[in-house]
Amino acid sequence: MSTHPAPHDNAWSHVVPLAAGLAHEIKNPLSTISLNLQLMLEDWQRDATTPRERRTLKRLQTLERETTRLVGLLEDFLRYARTPHASPQPCEVNPLVQELLDFIAPKAAQLGIRVRSQLAADLPVIQADPKLLKQALLNLLINAEEAMPKGGELIVATSANPPGVQIDVTDTGIGIPDHQLGRIFDLYFSTKEGGSGLGLCTTRRILELHGGSIAVESDVGKGTHFTVRLPLAPPGSATPEGRP
pLDDT tens across 16-26, in order? Predict the structure, then answer.
């Protein structure tokens, strides 16, 4: 089954800045609470000897763990809520993709994941902010790795697809059920326990900022395939550094 994400809800776009302000106000005192809990834990870990003290220590550990998780969740949301500032420039897709594949290779090897690249030669130049595009694609690669905890195969392919360039990311992981597939780009929706639900949402946001798109197909037990499309650089754009 495949799905194309619906356009962003305009009402939600007005809520995000307000929510970001609230998140910022909550994060500061929560960070202070987390720090004080860590200091208390250091004291109790040295001195907890009686059953009552050990019970108290265990409760403090639970509180510290949860406050740390909440601080991380707020930081993730604040990063999402911050409007990305794109600096588009003529950009070559293949070197950027290869750099990301080299980056994830050690973790993939640990997980028993075989990484294959199928990068088409002589691709046209696209117009993109390399830093933001790397972030968007890295989210997809990490998502694929997490879908294959027992190993598998990750295939990343590039191709010319007029009027732009296409990037395909395919994994042989657990797949996504039909009832979840239409929601995977929604803010805070995650198919993984403990997931923030911000990675794929951020990826879509960045790609749309570039005038691109993302679509997904998935079969439970077989894997997932993401298709990214990006527009070409305007005619007459400067040639990327290192390109003849």
Answer: 666 666 666 77
Which two three-digit tokens encode residue 229? 């499309």
Domain that holds residue 208: 89-231
Alpha helix stretches (DSSP H) within the chain:
10-47, 51-81, 93-110, 130-146, 178-181, 199-209
CATH of the domain at 117: 3.30.565.10
Say which amino acid occupies 176.
I
- Give Cα 117 distance to the centre of its chain: 20
- Identify whether 242 is part of a domain: no
**Is the full-model pTM beyond 0.70?**
no
- Which among 41, 57, 81 is the end of a domain? 81
Backbone φ and ψ for 234, nearest 5 degrees, come out as -60, 150
Using the CB atoms, write b or e for 47-66: b if 16+ within 10 Å.
Answer: ebeeeeeeeebeebeeebee
238 is a domain residue = no
- Give the residue from 61, 81, 101 where a domain finishes: 81
